């Protein structure tokens, strides 16, 4: 019998992909399935971005690029960062990576080992905890509470830091809850972190442009006092509907940059060249398709919240960011994962149970409203009929 190292038995997964596979299999059997499970825009990548990749291929960009990414792509990220945050960073601190997860992987691997602790949002993106457990570090959940709009509490977060804490993971706007942490709470957290200089911070800002109702995303880059220990994760997947292109970027402090460069050399070598040219076109080209997509998400968000709150036993606060709703289903009498499974099998609606996003996710389910208004309305109708039955 083959013997693998114990750490590989600790790796979890992202159940949204398992639900996607199951929903796809049911659809192939002829079932009418409405997928509100996967966090993927249902829009096409804007045409000028696609054309930039085609041009790059035709122009002969078929080879390796630097492990850190093309300089032109890193400079594009610098321009975009100035536009969205008002902060200028050096291209020598920017990494181009194959998606957002490699930044999580690299950051958690750098700071996680047995005997250390890493704080992560809960409910939160499941890969945070999965990778923490893989390293042997102890995962410490930072509660994202419904009564707080699913934003983190600076006071509660700071109270969880110990001498063993090595990394604090933040995510706003947040997956799976749609929560957006206000500036005042972020400022309070940054102030409190002055007493904990041994703690690095990874800020997952992949949904940075996806805010509603006048909410403004606050980048941790805007706080120079933590810049020397701050890792910022971002990318192309959500903003420009480029999930399948596998294009992410991150901004690293000087002392960590060469470490992640070496990891890139050992792990993925580089990001494919044509996709990087597409990424440059996304940042520098017209943003009208992004704005159109955001208007559509805002309309769908209102439909989802109104529809969910009309269902028996379900209540849903209004998400302020991303494209997820995280309704409370505790009064239905169902456990969350059992309800999600039953809705897929019996009602043909794919959702994700809250426990897939952490130990504090019970009593909730996640819906992605990155689907058409028509399908959202059909899904709400089916969920209502199922619950009444």
What does this structure look like?
- By secondary structure, the protein is of the alpha/beta class.
- The chain has 2 domains: 6-44 and 288-388, Alpha-Beta Complex (Aspartate Aminotransferase, domain 1), CATH 3.90.1150; 47-284, Type I PLP-dependent aspartate aminotransferase-like (Major domain) (Aspartate Aminotransferase, domain 2, 3-Layer(aba) Sandwich).
- It contains 12 helices and 12 strands.
- It has helices spanning 15-28, 47-58, 71-85, 101-111, 126-135, 154-159, 183-193, 254-267, 273-284, 288-309, 336-347, 373-388, and strands at 34-35, 94-97, 117-122, 138-143, 165-171, 200-204, 230-235, 248-251, 324-325, 349-350, 352-353, 365-368.
- Strands 2-8-7-6-5-3-4 form a 7-stranded mixed β-sheet, with helices on both faces.
- Strand 3, helix 5 and strand 4 (138-143) form a beta-alpha-beta unit.
- Helix 3 (71-85) runs parallel beside helix 9 (273-284) and helix 4 runs parallel beside helix 5 (126-135).
- The N and C termini lie far apart (49 Å).
- The mean pLDDT is 96.
